[in-house]
Amino acid sequence: MGHFQFLSKSEHDTKNFAKLLASHLKNKDIIVLTGSLGSGKTKFTEGILSYFGLENEISSPTFTIVNEYQKDGINIYHFDVYRLEDSSAFYEIGGEEYFEKGICLIEWGELIEDALPEEYVHITFSRDKSDENIRILNIDTNLKRWEDYFENIKY
User: 69-124, pLDDT tens digit by residue?
Assistant: First the structure.
């Protein structure tokens, strides 16, 4: 499994990093976002959606579990599974069916890890204790395509 790190110095950096990554997303790609409240998951999601011209439509799926976006035939599913008890609750809402239908961004996805397909990108967001604006994004993936991408990306 490839492990990479990106140091974001601002919300702008986080959004730009996400935008760049979004330009390489394809149908069936899954990105799991982990991190405490305020660590940058929402800014990252805004960056992904802004690449597709959907930044004005973003809303938190906290109460609905999933928000669906569509642009030019591309489906984007933004999940927040924090309130689900476990992966069986994810199966009950038919969550795994979304994996085949579009791009999935899953906040708190580690809570349903056993429901996730074998291949996905996992980004863990954390704060830098010495600077409140800095976020450390630890990226893990077992997809060769994404390993090549993260090894060669120029930020």
Answer: 998 889 999 999 988 888 999 999 899 999 999 999 999 999 999 999 989 999 99
Among residues 88, 93, 94, the alpha carbon closest in space to that of 112 is found at: 88
- Domain edges within the chain: 9-137
Residue 71 identity: K
DSSP-assigned letter for residue 104: E
Question: Which 3 state secondary structure label does DSSP give 138?
Answer: strand
Q: What is the CATH number of domain 9-137?
A: 3.40.50.300
Strand partners, 149: none
Could you tell me whether strands 66-71 and 74-80 are parallel, antiparallel, or unpaired per DSSP bridges? Answer: antiparallel
The one-letter amino acid code at 119 reads E
Please state, in angstroms and rounded to a whole number, the distance separating the CA atoms of residues 149 and 114: 26
